Amino acid sequence: MSNKNNEAVVEISQTASQFSSSIVLQAENKYIDVKSILGLFTTLVSNQSYELHVHGPDAEEAKKALLEVFDKHGLNVKVIE
Q1: What is the CATH number of domain 3-80?
Q2: What is the pTM of this model?
Q3: What's the pLDDT at 33?
């Protein structure tokens, strides 16, 4: 795993941890709690596309913040409404 990927994992997890909403990343048939750095390390690869599921009181803010982080790191993610 590259250093660039490590930075993405840490930033995604730190950003997600600022919100109380449930934030889950779906990668094929795996579901990962985005607040779990370990889960992200074992899943995040830049050539894959992901689905982001966000539910909770601050979901809109969480979606916006996480989309910015994924975009910054060139990761393909689609928010599932």
Answers
A1: 3.30.1340.10
A2: 0.88
A3: 94
